[in-house]
Design goal:
This protein is α/β, with parallel strands linked by helices and 334 residues long. The chain has two domains: 135 residues, NAD(P)-binding Rossmann-like Domain (Rossmann fold); 185 residues, Dihydrodipicolinate Reductase, domain 2 (2-Layer Sandwich). β7, α3 and β8 form a beta-alpha-beta unit. The longest helix has 17 residues. The protein has nine helices and 14 strands. The strands form three sheets. The chain has a six-stranded parallel β-sheet with strand order 5-2-1-6-7-8, sandwiched between helices.
Length: 334
């Protein structure tokens, strides 16, 4: 791998693409050259990187010649079509969609958890689901110490997880409600302002949604823990940025709050914010735009044996997407 790689961001104008560009700059990633790719309708638009304006090019089958690392965030169908083409052209793809996550020949990586899996890639590396990544930042260190058997969780997911149009929808609807106007909807099936929707992603025959099952399926693969079980309800809430997850976890070994705190305070990429007396606990409003996830409300679960409850919050555009992708790219250079 080139020490100063030629990097491409695919889906550069989307909510995650924009964060990828910012993250490359903020973390001083040694970019030799940056190419921005998107659909034809975005071609010609300019985005800033290190004080320069870079024009966006249309993504085509010939876009990948000479590119070392391609960060994809343009949706599953684009990834399915173009990631194999990029890999064939000798480029390493870090893909943010769900297209390759459960493919046995593709590593699914959270660097703080399973960075070693980067080594066996065959041209494509998958970035996990945002809710899964944020949850595992707190759960995996506890698993290493106490051996997790299963979790029950509910997510509180920000609208930016759906994309830029969803952010506009929440803004618009808040204005409509406040002005006493009829509420208009485009992105979500119901009003999201002043409401919560227990519906993220599409429903499966089991009654769970795809998003809800990602926690179990991707969690097993990332943690190398095939018997891990997760029963999850994913909920969209009227928050702009940063996902929150309430987790009840059951472990093999007895667990105390003190022991859990020690483990969590040493975990990379995670800050313990847990002082209920001072009303201190992780809040999406304050975790937005932060690289680290936060964990708090740590307590013994009163309904499980060897159980622990905690509340974990992370910026899903960063640790849930752009930051994790750039961290994977950093691993590739090591």
């Amino acid at each position: 791998m080139n020490r100063n790689p030629h990097v491409a961001v695919i889906g550069a104008t989307g909510a995650v693409g924009v964060e990828m560009i910012k993250t490359l700059e903020k973390r001083n990633f040694p970019v030799g050259k940056l190419t921005l790719l998107a659909s034809a309708r975005s071609a010609g638009k300019k985005l800033k990187y290190r004080g320069q304006e870079i024009a966006i090019k249309e993504l085509t089958k010939d876009s990948f010649t000479g590119i070392d690392i391609a960060l994809f965030s343009a949706g599953g169908s684009t990834s399915k079509e173009f990631a194999p083409i990029a890999a064939k052209a000798g480029c390493v793809v870090v893909d943010n969609s769900s297209a390759f996550r459960m493919d046995n020949s593709v590593p699914l990586v959270v660097p703080e958890i399973n960075r070693a899996d980067v080594k066996w890639h065959k041209g494509i590396i998958a970035n996990p689901n945002c809710t899964t990544a944020i949850t595992l930042m707190a759960l995996y260190p506890l698993h290493q110490a106490f051996g997790v058997k299963r979790i029950f969780a509910s997510s509180y997911q920000a609208v930016s997880g759906t994309g830029a149009k969803a952010i506009e929808e929440l803004e618009r609807q808040v204005g409509e409600v406040v002005a006493g106007k009829p509420v208009t909807k485009e992105v979500y099936p119901h009003q999201i302002a002043f409401n919560v929707l227990p519906h993220v992603d599409s429903f499966l025959p089991s009654g769970y949604t795809k998003e809800e099952m990602k926690m179990e399926n991707e969690g097993r693969k990332i943690m190398h823990h095939p018997s891990f079980r997760a029963s999850v309800t994913c909920v969209r809430v009227p928050v702009y940025r940063a996902h929150s997850v309430a987790v009840s976890a059951e472990f093999e070994k007895p667990v105390t709050v003190e022991a859990a705190r020690v483990v969590l305070s040493k975990a990379p990429g995670l800050d313990v914010v847990d002082d209920p007396e001072k009303k201190e606990y992780p809040l999406p409003l304050y975790v937005a735009e932060k690289y680290n996830c936060q964990v708090g409300r740590i307590r013994v679960d009163c309904a499980l044996d060897n159980g622990l409850c905690f509340w974990v919050v992370g910026d899903q555009l960063l640790k849930g997407a752009a930051l994790n992708a750039v961290q994977i790219a950093e691993e590739l250079l090591k």
